[in-house]
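Exercise 3.2. Students should predict the tertiary structure of the chain below and write it as structure tokens, then compare their answer with the key that follows.

Predict this chain's 3D structure.
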Amino acid sequence: EFASKHGGAYYKEAMEKNKQYVVQPPSVEKCQELSKQLFYTRLAR
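Answer key:
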């Protein structure tokens, strides 16, 4: 319930904080690159 009430505000806040990491415009290549990075990061753990 908390998440549904505060999710929007939390999401906006998170997006503001992460603005410097967000690539504009998002591209397919960048998306695939980031998903690979995430995959290998998880694999390394």
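Discussion points: The mean pLDDT is 77. Residues 2-44 form one domain.
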